[in-house]
Design a protein that fits this description.
- This protein is of the alpha/beta class.
- The protein has one domain: Rossmann fold, CATH 3.40.50.
- Helix 1 links the parallel strand 1 and strand 2.
Length: 120
């Protein structure tokens, strides 16, 4: 199966890298093809126009079209995150908000893998 793993944080020393590495290693061992999307390495600005709101398809940034195609072709989506202030990190939300709602979370397994904060 084709899996796309989304990182979530862009902070230095982020815990997300450990979660993503664990999930990726386990899935590769099961024979799955893995692609990762990391907002730290993604040329997306703060959302102004999501992909499905562009009037002229030639105005859509190349990376955004490639990301959309990758998501459409995936058999499963995985979202990895550390826990930051009890919510989803905004870089991941911004990245996902660029994509159309369909087929993002439709007719395929999705997984949220997280690492909780330590302490109280």
């Amino acid at each position: 199966m084709k899996a796309v793993i989304f990182a979530s944080s862009i902070r230095p020393g982020r815990m997300n890298d450990r979660v993503m590495k664990l999930v990726s290693t386990r899935l590769k061992a099961l024979g799955h093809a893995i692609r990762t999307v990391d907002p730290k390495c993604t040329p997306l600005p703060i959302l102004k126009t999501p992909l499905h709101h562009y009037e002229n398809p030639t105005d859509i940034p190349k990376f955004l079209n490639e990301l959309n195609t990758m998501v459409k072709e995936a058999d499963m989506l995985l979202f990895t995150t550390g826990e930051y202030n009890w919510c989803t990190p905004s870089p991941l939300v911004n990245l996902l908000d660029h994509l159309p709602p369909q087929p993002l979370l439709t007719n395929r397994p999705e997984l949220l893998a997280t690492r909780p904060v330590s302490g109280n």
